[in-house]
DNA sequence: GCGCACTTACCGATCGTTCAGTAAAACTAA
DNA sequence: TTAGTTTTACTGAACGATCGGTAAGTGCGC
């Protein structure tokens, strides 16, 4: 059918995440009105997906927000789903990166847990639109199901940490680890629904609040 | 364009909520193959909306899951959006009902808060598909925005309770009430994403866990 | 024979995607 | 320097499929 369509789009391969990166050699002339590059298109696409939902965002509407035509978008990406794939890769890559950092692999279980939760908040805030998109997936397509599976693996890793900390006696044992983890992530993931970067609540303060509420609860305690 | 679309669908008005209600009472005759009635269509529609997302659920697919034709669906409801309206009315009606119960209006602030949270968990579980649909709204249409506004009002009421309890000295004051409420609802609302009724975790146990984690946190406390 | 609960057949609009063509910049060779 | 070639970044029109919704007819129990 279409002879050239499938052929690999050059930049997609690496998991590098594409944040800036070596690309272009900078020689990008950029005289007059600069043309779009893929990261710019992706940013605007993800914002639109979050505003209207992925399914409800048509390529026409997306083109409108870019100020170009539908077909111009197809110059940069091979399909609508490709935009989704690139976005999800970025979000998942950042999240998975937390688990391989020293703070997440060395030390007492409860401190590792704290480190991972703090890291999750950090990624959520710094990659807010991308993680938002990830957290709203429904699993309609193979791509979405794969992303959900990777997210579930991340959850499982944290759940294991909770269990470890509980076995070590530093976390309460009267609520099971699975439920605990889910409530924990429910709390953290909800951040994408209401947090506005640049507002009065800083990223660090937010992370502190999350850790405080999660570990010590809302109640005023006698001892402390 | 479509002349009849707007005209009020008869049943939407009252807050009756329609939980089961007078109808059928389960004694649903069902001799041979019973024809569909509106509540049955609504149940299946809401399930489909939750499976695929509202936008991604076509009327054709919905008809397929009902085992009938698209037009048959239009015999029972006037539009796709009408299905959404009926579903959201049910979820919001139940949630708002909590706030007017005695347990939510009488007594100490922290006990009223506990009552409302427990009630929210109860409604979430008992009306799981309907509340799930509500919690996933994006606000693309007027209808969705209205529903989101009502949900926000509910959140505000709870936020006021948190503030009251904090002023009374029963809740910690080092995290502000707005953030607290949002984290609280993040935790509670996440239930729709993972809770399976009929599983090992009962509704009452779930509510207990939520209250425990929210008020006392995960940490093992010295004093108690 | 009449209303209820559908059915088949279809409408215009919109969807994601493709296509042929093109202006302008960038590179190449003389 | 300049003519020729290639690459980049697009435009506008169109495609088949599918969308939400409608019109008109059909079987069937009362």
TrEMBL record, chains A, B:
Biased composition range(s): Gly residues: 11-30
One family name in Pfam for this protein: TetR_C_24
Annotated region (Disordered), positions in chain: 1-30
Recorded superkingdom: Bacteria
Gene3D superfamilies attached to this UniProt entry: Homeodomain-like, Tetracycline Repressor, domain 2
DNA-binding annotation, residue ranges on this chain: 58-77
Residues that span the membrane, as ranges: none
Keywords: DNA-binding, Transcription, Transcription regulation
Alphabetized SUPFAM superfamilies for the sequence: Homeodomain-like, Tetracyclin repressor-like, C-terminal domain
InterPro entries: Homeodomain-like_sf, HTH-type_TetR-like_transc_reg, HTH_TetR, KstR2_TetR_C, Tet_transcr_reg_TetR-rel_C_sf
Residues in HTH tetR-type domain copies: 35-95
Protein name: TetR/AcrR family transcriptional regulator
Organism expressing this protein natively: Leifsonia kafniensis
């Amino acid at each position: 059918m279409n002879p050239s369509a499938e052929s690999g789009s050059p930049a997609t391969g690496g998991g590098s995440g594409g944040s800036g990166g070596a690309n272009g050699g900078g020689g990008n002339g950029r005289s007059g009105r600069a043309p779009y590059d893929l990261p710019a298109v992706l940013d605007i696409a993800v914002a639109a997906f979050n505003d209207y939902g992925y399914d409800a965002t048509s390529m026409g509407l997306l083109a409108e927000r870019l100020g170009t035509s539908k077909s111009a978008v197809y110059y940069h990406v091979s399909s609508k789903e490709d935009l989704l794939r690139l976005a999800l890769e970025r979000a998942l890559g950042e999240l998975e990166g937390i688990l391989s950092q020293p703070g997440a692999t060395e030390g007492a279980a409860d401190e590792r847990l704290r480190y991972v939760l703090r890291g999750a908040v950090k990624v959520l805030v710094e990659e807010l639109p991308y993680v938002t998109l990830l957290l709203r997936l429904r699993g309609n397509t193979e791509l979405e199901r794969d992303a959900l599976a990777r997210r579930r693996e991340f959850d499982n890793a944290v759940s294991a940490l909770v269990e470890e900390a509980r076995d070590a006696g530093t976390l309460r044992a009267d609520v099971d680890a699975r439920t605990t983890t889910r409530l924990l992530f429910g709390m953290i993931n909800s951040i994408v629904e209401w947090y506005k970067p640049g507002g009065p609540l800083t990223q660090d303060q937010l992370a502190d609040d999350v850790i405080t509420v999660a570990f010590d609860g809302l109640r005023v305690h006698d001892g402390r």
